[in-house]
User: Which sequence fits this backbone?
């Protein structure tokens, strides 16, 4: 079967750095996405990786290792507004997204 | 309209009733999707449409139907609602369903409760 694993919840301090991991086993791979979802709102796109390595976008970076079936999202200089759920999704061989259950990130002052 | 809209925002429905959730996008995206999101589970694909006139079944299609008569609209119908269909429903769209950086854009969601 297809499976995406992420930690259920993480806590970090304002101004710090946090890394959210995602491991996957899917039928085929055509890219990995990270989305942010604030409580009661829709998911919004953060990053896309299709080749191995690090993609940096401001305070957010995303890393992919296809051979290990592994990705992480790195958030730097955490702000209170970063409190949200972070969703990992893999596009499979049918070009459909398979979603993890999300990681709820709690930021403390 | 700017982006993707859904209606209604929320609904309480008696079991056995028929209900249509509406979704409209003005981005001229070819592909559209319906997901449900339940606590502790990832987004699960119900139905999708890669282009106007075509639809396909996702991971959890039973009890739901869709149509795609034009590019902009993608309604989701529950023919006879059951309590297990209580969920938050998200409609999404993307430029194409294929390769490349074609992220999905999401509507604000419909919170449906079936009693």
Assistant:
């Amino acid at each position: 079967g297809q499976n995406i694993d992420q930690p259920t919840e993480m806590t970090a301090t304002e101004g710090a750095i946090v890394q959210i991991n995602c491991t996957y086993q899917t039928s085929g791979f055509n890219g990995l996405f990270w989305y942010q979802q604030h409580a009661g709102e829709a998911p919004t796109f953060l990053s896309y990786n299709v080749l191995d390595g690090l993609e940096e976008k401001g305070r957010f970076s995303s890393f992919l290792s296809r051979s290990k079936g592994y990705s992480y999202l790195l958030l730097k200089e955490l702000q209170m507004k970063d409190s949200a759920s972070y969703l990992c999704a893999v596009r499979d061989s049918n070009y459909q997204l398979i979603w993890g259950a999300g990681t709820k990130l709690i930021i403390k002052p | 309209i700017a982006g993707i809209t859904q209606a209604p925002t929320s609904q309480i429905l008696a079991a056995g009733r028929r209900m249509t959730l509406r979704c409209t996008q003005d981005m001229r995206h070819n592909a559209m999707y319906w997901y449900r999101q339940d606590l502790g589970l990832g987004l699960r694909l119900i139905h999708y449409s890669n282009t106007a006139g075509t639809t396909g079944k996702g991971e959890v299609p039973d009890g739901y139907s869709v149509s795609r008569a034009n590019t902009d609209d993608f309604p989701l119908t529950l023919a006879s609602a059951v309590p297990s269909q209580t969920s938050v429903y998200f409609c999404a769209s993307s430029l194409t369903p294929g390769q490349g950086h074609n992220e999905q854009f999401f509507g604000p969601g419909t919170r449906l409760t079936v009693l």
